[in-house]
């Protein structure tokens, strides 16, 4: 009986270890990236400093497109303001942690669309290797359909503010009309959206200080960030 209990104890311990190992090795889907949790390396973080303090670290990611996987190393840099912030934010993208009795612990890996990141190295890889054509990229169609809904909602608010506010808020109405023109063509036609993104690239992500373009650029930067090659600026 004791030998059976011992066997079961060892069996369940080994099963738990195996499950944890598998949960940390999640393969990316097509046009996705998945982090290698054990690859995280601190580059310039002084743990002796009090909060807030800067954290800089590198993680390696497995990124897949056209059925092939490539490993991309990417650097994250941020300011953390507390121990909780440190535990939740200073992780590779795609890593989720959970609250436990002693603080925070690893929870799971969630692969992410390669364009949906602020990591310059992955953003660059995505733009060099993946097509954003909604006719062939299902994730693009999904995101553009959601963008269409989001833009219409914001555009309606802008137009209402522009009409009710008189000359002082006329630029809101103009911005709303521009956004509506973008949304009307989505998800299949991104020509007008691409034109706005081209303006954002020329301005290196800097938002105009006033006028309708200021509102339009701010909206597109916020809602369509995945389509903007921010690694270029």
Please, could you describe this protein's structure?
- The chain is an alpha+beta fold and 233 residues long.
- It has two domains: 26-129, no CATH class; 138-232, no CATH class.
- It has seven helices and six strands.
- The strands form two sheets. A four-stranded antiparallel sheet has the order 3-2-1-6. A two-stranded antiparallel sheet has the order 4-5.
- Helix 4 (138-164) runs antiparallel to helix 5 (170-185) and helix 5 (170-185) crosses helix 7 (212-223).
Give me the secondary-structure topology.
Elements: H1 2-23, E1 32-42, E2 53-65, E3 68-80, H2 83-89, E4 95-100, E5 103-109, E6 112-113, H3 120-129, H4 138-164, H5 170-185, H6 191-202, H7 212-223
Antiparallel strand pairs: 1-2, 1-6, 2-3, 4-5
Helix pairs in contact: 4-5, 5-7, 6-7
What's the count of strands? 6
Radius of gyration: 23 Å
Helical region count?
7
Largest sheet: 4 strands, antiparallel
Shape: globular
Helices and strands, in order, run as HEEEHEEEHHHHH
What would the average pLDDT be, to the nearest integer?
Answer: 89
Q: Low-confidence segments, ≥5 residues, pLDDT <50?
A: 1-22
Overall structural class, as computed from helix and strand content, comes to alpha+beta
Measured by DSSP, the beta-strand proportion falls in 15-25%
Strand order of the largest sheet: 3-2-1-6
What is the share of helical residues? 40-55%
Total of domains: 2
- N-to-C CA distance: 67 Å
Brief overview:
This protein has 233 residues and is α+β, with helices and mostly antiparallel strands.
């Amino acid at each position: 009986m004791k030998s059976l209990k011992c066997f079961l104890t060892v069996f369940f311990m080994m099963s738990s270890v195996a499950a944890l190992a598998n949960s940390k090795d999640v393969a990316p889907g097509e046009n996705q990236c998945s982090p290698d949790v054990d690859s995280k390396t601190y580059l310039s973080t002084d743990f002796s400093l009090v909060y807030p303090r800067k954290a800089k670290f590198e993680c390696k990611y497995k990124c897949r497109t056209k059925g092939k996987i490539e490993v991309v190393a990417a650097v994250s840099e941020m300011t953390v303001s507390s121990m909780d912030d440190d535990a939740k934010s200073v992780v590779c993208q795609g890593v989720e942690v959970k609250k436990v009795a002693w603080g925070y612990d690893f929870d799971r890996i969630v692969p992410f669309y390669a364009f949906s990141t602020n990591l310059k190295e992955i953003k660059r890889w995505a733009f060099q290797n993946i097509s954003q054509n909604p006719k062939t990229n299902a994730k693009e169609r999904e995101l553009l359909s959601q963008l269409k809904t989001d833009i219409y909602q914001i555009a309606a608010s802008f137009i209402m503010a522009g009409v009710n506010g008189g000359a002082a808020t006329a630029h809101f109405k103009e911005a709303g009309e521009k956004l509506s023109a973008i949304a009307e063509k989505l998800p299949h036609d991104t020509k007008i959206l691409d034109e706005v993104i081209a303006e954002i690239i020329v301005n290196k992500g800097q938002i105009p200080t006033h006028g309708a373009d200021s509102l339009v650029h701010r909206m597109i930067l916020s809602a369509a960030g995945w389509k903007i090659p921010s690694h270029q600026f």
